[in-house]
Amino acid sequence: MRLNEDPITFTVFTEIKIIEQLAALRIQRALPEGLQVSHFAVLNHFAHLGGEKSPAQLAKVFQVTKGAMTNTISRLETFGCVKIREDETDKRRKLVSLTVKGQRVREEAMAYVAPVFGQISQEFGRERLRSALPILRDLRIYLSAG
Q1: Among 57, 58, 117, 138, fewest CB within 10 Å belongs to which?
Q2: For the chain, what is the mean pLDDT?
Q3: Distance between CA atoms of 107 and 26, rounded to whole angstroms?
Q4: For position 146, what pLDDT does the model report?
Q5: According to the model, what pLDDT value does residue 1 have?
Q6: Per-residue pLDDT tens over the stretch 48-73
């Protein structure tokens, strides 16, 4: 089937991309001065999962280049939000982890963005948003596998 005969898949992905851009813009506007969406995303990742990850692992998780991730974690290190240490088993590799300050900054940032999420939740309703999750999750899993 050609795209112009059934554009539903293209339309779905166009909507997802626009939603992603608009959501990032709203979150960026809500974040405290100096904290970027990319910083917030990394802090959020560590707050949920904990542990340590290499810059390459983080780049893969966030689907960005290693250089872009190195820049993000370097800035977070400058702010005291992450700790970067040498891997004891492979001295060429670095490992990144969240600091106590990083956890605190993430919690403060969550307080800034909570009204954005609350407004969306109020507008659409938690159940309606929850009903969108299965297809979005399945799309993510499908695309991650490829």
Answers
A1: 138
A2: 94
A3: 18
A4: 77
A5: 55
A6: 999 999 999 999 999 999 999 999 99
**How far apart are alpha carbons 100 and 82 in whole angstroms?**
9
| Residues with Cβ within 8 Å of residue 116, at least 6 apart in sequence | 26, 27, 30
3-state secondary structure of 116: helix
- Cα separation, 128 vs 113, in Å, equals 20
Q: What is the pLDDT of residues 99-130, one digit of tens each?
A: 999 999 999 999 999 999 999 999 999 999 99
Write the DSSP assignment of 10-37 as a string of letters.
HHHHHHHHHHHHHHHHHHHHHSPTT--H
**Residue 140, helix vs strand vs coil:** helix
Q: Are 84 and 73 in contact (CB under 8 A)?
A: yes
Whether the CB-CB separation of 52 and 95 falls below 8 Å is answered with yes
Residue by residue, DSSP assigns 21-85 as HHHHHHHHHHSPTT--HHHHHHHHHHHHH-S-B-HHHHHHHHT--HHHHHHHHHHHHHTTSEEEE
CA angle in degrees (0–180, nearest 5) for 136-138-139: 65
